[in-house]
Amino acid sequence: MTILTMITKMSEGLGRTCAIFFLTLLFSLPLGLLVAMLRMSKNRLVRAVTTGVIAVLRGTPLMLQLLAVTYGPFYLFGLSVSREKLIPVVIAFSINYAAYFAEIYRGGIESMSQGQYEAAEVLGYSRGQCFMRIILPQVIKRILPSMTNEVVTLVKDTSMAFTVAYQEMFTIGKQIANSQTSFMPFVIAGVFYFLFNAIVSWVMARFEKRLSYYR
Predict the structure, then answer these.
(1) Which helix (H) or strand (E) holds 73?
(2) Which terminal residue of the chain has fewer beta carbons within 10 Å of its beta carbon, N or C?
(3) 3-class secondary-structure state, position 151
């Protein structure tokens, strides 16, 4: 099999890799903010439960969480395993990354001075309006470097979908490598991931530059 043929076959899985990436961001970013708010709740029980969930999600392998979400319903309730693996894969990725994003959000929110809330209150803003219009835009600016690191990691972590036999790019490359006894598919996959991350880093850098007026 020629290198061009390998690239063509692996490109078929690239769309599935992109689907995991974009859908995970779509769900995990807002979910992470919600979890961060629960983590900072004044209710001790809510705060304790949220802290415990975050600890479990951050303290166990993503691979294990993928297996649990995909095959857990079968072993626990006897439900059939869905043929469409994208749904459980995105659920597992979204929950896992929401836990990491939640802590990044929390760090950014807690770094804001209390004086800004008080000044907004004097100007007639409610607590919610102050957070959405004044605090959150500044928080996003502050946490962008940390978010970029997680997003870059997400690009590489999409390869873990091979654990549940989801036919994304790395899984196809692994199959080709086994059938052809060649290391070249892994080299091609590495180039794909590198270019994908280069694009992601460029986009995030541009986004950070657009928010430079907060300096």
Answers:
(1) helix 62-77
(2) C
(3) helix
